[in-house]
Amino acid sequence: MNDLLSFFQKALYATAFALLVAMALSACGGDNPGPSGSTVDNSASSTPANGG
What is the reported pLDDT for 52? Predict the structure, then answer.
């Protein structure tokens, strides 16, 4: 039971983190139109700047 609860807690945190990242990415570069590849490049280049 405890393992199941821990699993759900981790899944919830992962989902919340993914949602936060998606919201941040859409706020940063969601407005400019382009192929999905450019969005991936944007996220990859802006991640170190946000982290450090």
Answer: 45
Nearest to 24 by CA among 43, 45, 2: 43
Q: Quick one: pLDDT at residue 12?
A: 96
Q: From CA 29, how far away is CA 19, in angstroms rounded?
A: 15
All residue ranges of the chain with pLDDT < 50 are: 37-42, 52
The three-state secondary structure class of 31 is coil
CA angle 21, 35, 24 (to 5 degrees): 15
Domain boundaries, the chain: 2-51
DSSP state of 40: H
> What CA–CA distance (Å, rounded) separates 44 from 9?
27
